[in-house]
Amino acid sequence: MNEILKSVAPPANPKIPEFNPGDAVSVHVKIVEGDRERIQEFKGIVLTVNKRGVNPSFKVRRIASNGIGVERTFLTHSPRIDKVVVEKRSKVRRARLYYLRERTGKRARLKEKFGIDVTKQDVAKQDEAEQS
User: What is the 3-state secondary structure (H, E, C) of 22-79?
Assistant: First the structure.
């Protein structure tokens, strides 16, 4: 059964790095408007990551204008995702960060992981993926 699922699964997008809940990411999404196609950036904090099965997904939350929270779920293997950039890694002790929905302002902050240079690691991985 596992072989059948692997044969049906879409290929992994090399422009999506490894990330965890609590990381601040910027997701570049392709948007089609009439006959034009443009890339829209969605910056926020990763609430959940679902890596199981054929359709892995992740949920990103950001605060829009007037303090309204916006959550968006992205399919990891979607052709609409141009790339994902990890901007900051945070230290969290849960896999699902739904408690951030009720928090605003300073209470919604997460502790940053230090000692990990996010930009150099992710840029190197993206360059390797693009070259191959």
Answer: CCEEEEEEEEEECCEEEEEEEEEEEEEEECCCCCCEEEEEEECHHHCEEEEEEECCCC
**24: Cα within 13 Å, side-chain hemisphere:** 15
CB neighbourhood size of 92 (10 A): 18
Q: What are phi and psi of 125, to 5 degrees?
A: -65, -40
Q: Is the pTM of this model over 0.70?
A: yes
The structure tokens listed for 99 are 């408690």
Q: Which residue has the tokens 């399919």?
A: 75
Residues in Cβ contact with 48 at an 8 Å cutoff, skipping those fewer than 6 apart: 21, 58, 59, 95, 96, 97
CATH tag, 2-114: 2.30.30.790
Measured CA to CA, the distance from residue 8 to residue 24 in angstroms comes to 31
pLDDT of residue 115: 75
pLDDT category at 124 given cuts 50, 70, 90 is low
Domain locations in the chain as residue ranges:
2-114
